[in-house]
Amino acid sequence: MSNLRLQTSASPHMHGHCTDHHNLPSPPPQVLSLHHIPNNHVLNSPKKPSIFSHILNSSTSLQLLGNPSWNSINKHGFLNNKHVIDVSSCNEMIRDCTDNALFEDAIRVYVNLLRSGFPVEEFRFFPCLIKAFGGLCDVRNSGQIHGHVLKLGFFDDVYVANALLSAYLKCGAVENAVKMFEKMGERDSVTWNSMISGYCQSGDYTDSLKIFRMMIKDYGLYPNRVACLSAVSACSSVYWLTHGREIHAFVLKHGWDADEFLVSALIDLYMKCEDLRNSNNVFRSILDCESVRGNPVIWNVMILGYVSNGCLTLALELFIEMLGLGIKPDSLTMVDVLVLCSESSDLEVGKQIHGFILRFGLDNDVRVCTALMEMYFKCGDPESGFNIFKRSQNRNLVTWGAVLSNCAQNGYPIKALELFYDFMSEHGGFPDSFMLVSVLRACSSLTSKPRGEEIHGLAVKMSFDSNVYVGGALVDMYGKGRDIESAQKVFGGLLSRDLVSWNALISGYSQNECADEALNSFREMQSEQIRPNTVTASCILSVCAHLSVFSVCKEVHCYLLRQGFLPNILVSNSLIAAYAKCGDMNSSWTIFEQMPEGNEVSWNSIIFGLGMHGCTDKIIVLFGKMKEAGMKPNHATFTALLSACSHAGRVGMGWQFFRSMSEDYKLEPQLEHYTCMVDLLGRAGHLNQAYDLIMAMPLVPDGGIWGSLLGSCRSHSNEKLAELIANHIFELDPTNIGYRVLLANMYEDFGKSNEVARIRGAIKDMGLKKQSGCSWIEINNNVSIFVASDCSHL
Q1: 263, 310, 504, 608: least buried by Cβ within 10 Å?
Q2: Which positions does the entry assign to PPR repeats (predicted)?
Q3: Would the pLDDT of 466 be above 70?
């Protein structure tokens, strides 16, 4: 539209007429610098073909112009005789073009009117023309027509002013609209409605409701249904249930309760404010009205509301009721029901919904395909999810992002990386921030720092590295990749830090045994007015468990109680483990018993804690109760059981649990289970049996399992086997100083000074240094730390 300039041949009295409005908002000077342009001024021709020309060349246009002969119409669409202009037909053209969103053509008709010598003071279709300018959603263009109207002196017309107000609001120029509104001498219902809806659409819901209140209280005007609709939407967005109920009462009083738009808005309001009873009452009140009942939008709002409030059964029943009444679902209905199936992990119902989608011909809708794919992933059928993705013909960024996210979150990180590289090669390397977050999560799952660094480089190249979501994922990736320095650097470079990024940093510190840094970050986060959540609490409790600092554990527990995080299954599980490791098994057991509902982690945590404290008999009883409660033992359960048997020296029971894993529960023992068994056998003196178990296991032994047996050899003075085991260890990890010191101490026990000198000499020649041992004790809420050769506490 930059090539369309308005020209004006207004009489002098019109210029003087607009001086009362000099305080009104002014568009940018370069747009409003409209001068008196001679009527013979030639405008620049538009660069693209005008649809207006197409209209003029049709039989319809001939009728609109009074059906003149073809030759009497010039190239601009007007009669060759300038004195014979059918103004009403031109006005009708402006209106038709505007109604059909042909905004540039509507403006072109008006410009051609001016070029043909039409006296502008006789033009009466400014509201429609201004609507065309507003339809371009460009504040510069709206400012141009604003200046034009001011110059002509037509601003006193309330219809013209309302049209300008609406144009500014459509362009998002709320400040200009407010200035106009404040200076308007006359306001009607359209004026108020424009302001109420304009504020609402711009996201300023509070001011929208303020204008609504001002209209009623200060000016005594009653809102119409359009104003009520905007006000209800504003209440929904800010969860103002009381004001929403007041508007609902007004709607009922004026008999608008069957208006389908208001009904949908009211249902949405009550659902968002968790008032399911009133939401259902509004919905049921329109079921007898067939014209409203058949609108699928109302059903969609109701179904989505139930899903959002966790009422999945009610949502499914409503969908079945909808089908029973013969109302055809649309694509949004199917998306809502698929979300329902995802939330409830109901694969059978999800498959039935898939059948409905095929029957209703909605399988090519990209939103439905994306929701269908996610449903299969979340319901445990990833193969079908992949097939949906492969068959999809309309993949967009959302679809790609969904498949990457689901792969990363559902245990397919390698597949997520493969798909990401497929996307890069297929689309030229323009992922969005959501896709980068998903693929970084996959790198975190794989603890693949090199791949993560590649994605980090791409994020920097696309200027996403300061994005709070991408930044949080990068911090998490580096933390899990044991590069806490890089995690700190990324975190420090974030322009803003949300709870997720703080959690990622604290979790990284916790996983890398940086306990002090984790606690300091926890305090700093709160100083920045960011409220911790259950994930934060779980990370801090793991730090307390690592430090075995009982006082800090109690402080965190009290904080969680004050913040209302209990009972929460994640927090409760962390508290069970933390108290057990801090030596307070009574508190650990109390929390377990008070949990309204536990999961496998809850049972595993309490079994592990009891095992640490030697309560083997209690563990046996608890394991039986676990099975009675319908909990299926997993690998972590047997790790806790075998560890307990090892601490208690219960060899027979340990063998029983070890064999039960594969025989009764179809769980193949992992390296940690073999380590527990080797430790159990070694502590009991069955050294050869432990060695044979290592040699026979189908897994590659690591330094930890050999080190456990080496410690048992020293305890039972088996020098020959110790030397054999030491050779295995030094082949796996030649620079491990801990096991060399252990072997040297064992030779010292045997009185072999030459061997002791040889091993310690080798340590010195290799430049290895043993980290000083450290212990701490808590007395009267004070923690005292002791290191080797430390005399500070004497």
Answers
A1: 310
A2: 86-120, 157-187, 188-223, 295-329, 396-431, 498-532, 599-633, 634-664
A3: yes
